[in-house]
Design goal:
Elements lengths: L32 H21 L3 H5 L2 H21 L25 E3 L9 H8 L5 E6 L33 H10 L3 E6 L13 H15 L4 E6 L7 H14 L4 E5 L19 H11 L3 E5 L14 H7 L4 E5 L19 H11 L7 E4 L3 H5 L3 H15 L4 E2 L11 H9 E3 L1 H7 L6 H16 L33 H7 L9
């Protein structure tokens, strides 16, 4: 693997990555004023702190102090936005009672609890941004073009494609994945999850996953990787698809099954649409028969495809209480601004509504996963608070799962740090009944819930080979620059030809 930085040696980029980008399955929104100002403040705060510490810019921005500075800057913008009732100001806030104030001061719906001294004291920063709890990432991917040299160029529109390799396909290798996930983040265990490519063209086949498991085991010296097998009940005769599932289950140790109801065709888990292939019930019955009884299904983040709606989750889960349903992305859509639950709303509200209409209570067999969803909303504390609050109410604090969609966005360490420091404001708890996001609840989300669901005992610590990195997380091998498509044009040019459901 060839490690390449897209910035010069003196400036690796901000470690809290707020630039909008796509995992290739949606058009990223433009950079808004709020995030732009947060990045400006983070840059200024980082430069000032590096001078005070006598550190180079490179060292600071690759340290835990640098990541803490990003969170402090983001919280500063959020405080100013709440106080002004609008976009964050680049000037000092008006004193209370002075003329020209647009609205009475309020407080943000979500906050990042980071002490100011974390910016200049590495020991304090470490306690904020480095995980002490076990982190289990239930949605990971890589693309193995060494094993599948003729595989579909699936990753051309993903952020990681801009890593700097001469051949962009090399950016998705098992080497890059193990480096970014296990050596540059606090991830202790990861679940490899299938992608929507069928047959020999699939660069994340079950054999590729086994190779990834072996590479991680060799790197870390223990068992850290679980795999999900791909199921495609909507491709070809259903009997043949079910037989293929049984063959895979016989020869591989699986943690679950992965399906896409919007690709390559359209179908639903509950077969509620008579105009679509009635394969959902047959697939779920077969899962019950052969195991493992875990189904991960992509819902949301599909360019608005009706077949990626979580409308079928409640009915399917109620009909099959012995199966655990992992709802990847939790129905989130970038086009929907998440606020309080709206019975007629889109995005995450669709999942909440499906469970409520079916009478499934929190703690049932439905799990809400945060891959790509958290990466987007962590830059908008109010949205982040509503997304987490609604999911905690709908599925319960034992049923929200950590996932990042890694390797698509590079290292997930900034996402981990943002969740560890995030809190739902008391006024939102009081107004909407959201539970407090306590350290105990966050530990469940980051790994405890997945460990219980998957029946695993996670390693006591993350995998960092001796001599690489330190307690403050300094001098990581890569820069922090946000990779990949950041505009509608980028996504449409690079991705839609292979993934027509994006349009």
């Amino acid at each position: 693997m060839h490690i390449v930085s897209r910035r010069d040696d003196d400036d690796p980029g901000l470690p809290l990555k707020l630039w909008p980008c796509s995992n290739g399955e949606f058009v990223p929104p433009p950079l808004d004023t709020f995030r732009r100002e947060a990045m400006r403040r983070a840059r200024q705060l980082s430069d000032d702190a590096a001078r005070r510490l006598g550190w180079s810019r490179r060292r600071f921005l690759r340290s835990s102090c640098g990541l803490a500075a990003g969170l402090v800057a983001l919280q500063s913008c959020s405080d100013d936005q709440a106080a002004s009732g609008g976009a964050p100001s680049t000037t000092a806030r008006r004193a209370p009672g002075t003329s020209g104030a647009a609205q009475p001061p309020t407080t943000p719906g979500g906050t990042f609890s980071v002490p100011p001294e974390a910016v200049t004291e590495p020991e304090v920063a470490t306690t904020v941004v480095r995980a002490t709890e076990a982190v289990i990432d239930v949605q990971n991917h890589f693309l193995d073009y060494e094993l599948h040299p003729e595989g579909t160029d699936f990753g051309s529109g993903f952020p990681q494609a801009s890593c700097g390799e001469a051949d962009a396909r090399d950016c998705f290798s098992v080497g890059w994945w193990s480096e970014l996930v296990f050596r540059q983040s606090d991830t202790a265990m990861a679940v490899l999850s299938a992608i929507p490519v069928v047959g020999e063209a699939n660069p994340l086949s079950i054999d590729a996953m086994e190779r990834g498991r072996a590479v991680a085991n060799e790197l870390c010296g223990d068992e850290r990787v679980l795999i999900q097998a791909q199921a495609v009940p909507d491709v070809g005769p259903i009997d043949a698809a079910l037989e293929a599932m049984a063959a895979v289950a016989e020869f591989h140790q699986l943690s679950g099954w992965k399906v896409y109801t919007h690709s390559p065709n359209g179908w639903f888990l509950d077969d509620h649409d008579p105009d679509l292939p009635a394969v959902g019930e047959a697939f779920l019955a077969h899962v019950e028969a052969i195991g493992p009884p875990v189904v991960a299904v992509h819902k949301g983040l599909a360019g608005g495809s009706q077949y990626a709606s979580p409308v079928d989750i409640g009915p399917a889960a109620a009909r099959h209480p012995g199966i655990s349903f992992l709802v990847y992305h939790s129905g989130f859509e970038h086009a929907v601004h998440e606020g309080p639950y709206d019975p007629d709303g889109g995005g995450v509200d669709r999942l909440v509504r499906s469970l409520a209409d079916t009478g499934l209570a929190p703690g049932s067999n439905v799990y809400a996963e945060l891959g790509s969803t958290w990466r987007r909303v962590m830059g908008d504390p109010d949205q982040a608070a509503h997304v987490l609050g609604k999911l905690l109410l709908a599925v319960g604090e034992d049923n929200v799962l950590w996932g990042t969609d890694s390797i698509w966005y590079g290292s997930p360490q900034d996402q981990i740090a943002a969740l560890r420091s995030f809190e739902i404001a008391p006024q939102l708890q009081e107004q909407f009944g959201y539970p407090a996001l306590t350290p105990e609840v966050k530990a469940k989300i980051l790994g405890g819930n997945a460990a219980r669901l998957l029946g695993v005992e996670p390693p006591a610590a993350a995998c960092t080979p001796p001599g690489e990195g330190d307690a403050a997380g300094e001098e990581s091998a890569l820069g922090n620059v946000t990779l990949g498509p950041v505009s509608r044009r980028d996504v449409l040019r690079a991705f839609v030809s292979e993934h027509p459901w994006v349009v």
